[in-house]
Design a protein that fits this description.
Number of strands: 14
Order of helices and strands: HHHHHHHHEEHHEHEEEEEHEHEEEEEHH
Largest sheet: 6 strands, mixed
Strand content: 5-15%
Shape: globular
Number of helices: 15
Distance between the termini: 18 Å
Mean pLDDT: 92
Structural class: alpha/beta
């Protein structure tokens, strides 16, 4: 915050500036996580972002705004993705101090994006102006998109996802996707900041603008962009609840195979889905009679079985490994191979092989599947498949459309223990369902296994950390939302237009 012209700096004013400029954004960032699952308090991120924009509006320099943005990001990501520590220390065997440091540095890296947004707002728009608020909203979304793309991307906790399913701003999702909803959140926050820092006609105009954003979002949610493509089909989603630290132990292997075999046999559904890498063996290493019995069971009961597994292809003396979903069948088994791999989890980036000496991560040398793959068909229904965190990338999920009639995610979020990660991940699936106007079904190892309808609502789910099968009637759908046709381009163009408006040099 800047001092009044000519006012000598004092210790008290400096402390107050520091507290407002850094403390308020830090608390606001941490509070924003309440907008996400499992809390779903969607207004909180709007109010928190408005608090940050108020600080940016009064910042005397681009550096001040950048520092405020950085502390906001630290609060946001330390509160929201601290589960990375669980993955590194508890399951990756990294020493506690090193895991804590690594988690902090990762969150600090993510905080650079709101910091850059603050710098842009402070550098290219005058203080105490509506232009700065407009540029702040546009920059926040622009750098959020960059975070979801740079270094293979990490779009976890997109601002827009916090509005799904209950917020009126979620109505923009079928039109503009998650980043479009983020833009609506940021624009509403900018208008709220303007309401709190202006008066008279300017305040009334800002209030009307915020009301209009909510009204248009709500009205947009009433349009049915897709329609049923056939009768509802029963889908069984299995959740084995095998502890991550136990999964690959030889003495547990037989029990895991037997447990899933029993669940498949007992689940009365047309399509049965088994989670990501559920069986602790390569597909070609599974006992022949085990696979044959499942194939025969599927034939007798008219049941399709989709198995999350690891495929491997021989390349001379070497193998290529693929994280896959395979449809069990008597002849060639159609499969989807994961395209977007997790850095350090499924592949080690060049120059970082030393990480393997610290982390004990099984199967960290996967190959990516083809960039373009057809939907995986089961019971005559085309499924758009996403494995693990692939479903947080909206523009990749829509590659299956309009052919895919149901979306499918298989995951193993056991890596993150009893943290918010599994629920946050499910909320991303809710966003994908709303963006595309299709059901999303999720089969996971420890949770959250759920069926989500085309409006992003969780229709049913299994309790976390329990073993069981969830059977739900799911309606295949056809048609195309505007987002499934155009992707992120319209939202980014709107953000760019708002940024251009914000860079006009006009004071209040």
């Amino acid at each position: 915050m800047s001092l009044a012209p000519g006012a000598p700096p004092t210790r008290m004013s400096a402390a107050r500036t520091l507290g407002v400029g850094l403390g308020v954004p830090l608390v606001a960032g941490a509070a924003s996580v309440l907008g996400f699952a499992p809390f779903y308090f969607w207004p909180v991120p709007i109010v928190a972002l408005a608090a940050l924009f108020l600080v940016w509006r009064g910042s005397g320099s681009a550096l001040q705004a950048a520092l405020s943005g950085f502390t906001f990001g630290l609060g946001y990501f330390l509160a929201g993705v601290s589960w990375v520590y669980v993955s590194l220390h508890v399951f990756g065997s990294m020493p506690a101090a090193l895991a804590a440091l690594s988690t902090f540095l990762f969150c600090a890296y993510l905080a650079l994006f709101p910091a850059a947004a603050g710098w842009a707002a402070g550098r290219f728009a005058p203080a105490a102006s509506w232009e700065r608020l407009a540029l702040a909203a546009a920059a926040m979304v622009g750098f959020e998109w960059l975070r979801g793309w740079l270094f293979t991307g990490f779009p976890w906790l997109e601002l827009g996802t916090s509005q799904v399913p209950g917020g009126p701003l979620a109505g923009y999702a079928p039109y503009l996707g998650a980043y479009g909803v983020s833009l609506a959140v940021a624009a509403t926050a900018a208008l709220l900041a303007g309401i709190l820092s202006s008066s008279g006609r300017a305040r009334a105009a800002a209030l009307a603008g915020a009301a209009a954003l909510f009204a248009v979002g709500w009205l947009g949610s009433l349009v049915p962009w897709t329609a049923p493509a056939g009768e509802a089909v029963s889908i069984g989603l299995l959740q084995g609840n095998v502890a991550q630290e136990m999964k690959w132990r030889p003495d547990v292997r037989a029990k895991t195979l037997a447990a899933y075999h029993r669940m498949i046999m007992e689940t009365d559904a047309r399509i049965v889905i088994i989670p990501e890498t559920a069986l602790p063996a390569f597909l070609d290493e599974l006992p022949k009679d085990y696979v044959a019995s499942l194939v025969e069971h599927g034939r007798e009961k008219n049941k399709e079985i989709l198995l999350g597994t690891v495929e491997r292809d021989h390349r001379g003396d070497n193998f290529l490994y693929y994280n896959s979903v395979v449809r069990l069948s008597p002849g060639p088994m159609p499969s989807y191979r994961k395209r977007h791999l997790v850095p350090f989890g499924e592949f080690i980036p060049p120059g970082f092989r030393f990480v393997l000496a610290v982390l004990k991560i099984p199967m960290s040398d996967f190959s990516a599947g083809a960039a373009v793959q057809p939907p995986l068909v089961a019971a005559g229904i085309p499924f758009g498949v996403a494995i693990c965190y692939e479903d947080i990338f909206g523009e990749e999920v829509i590659n299956f459309l309009p052919q895919a009639q149901i979306l499918l995610n298989v995951s193993n979020d056991a890596w993150f223990g009893r943290s918010f990660a599994a629920d946050q991940h499910m909320q991303s699936s809710q966003m994908r369902a709303l963006e595309t106007g299709r059901w999303m079904v999720r089969s996971t190892n420890t949770g959250a296994s759920a069926a989500i309808d085309e409006r992003g609502r969780v229709v049913s789910r299994l309790p976390a950390f329990t073993a069981g099968a969830l059977v739900e009637k799911v309606t295949p759908r056809q048609g195309a939302t505007p987002y499934s046709r155009w992707g992120n381009a319209p939202a980014l163009l709107l953000a760019a237009a708002l940024a251009i408006l914000g860079m006009r040099r006009r004071r209040l």
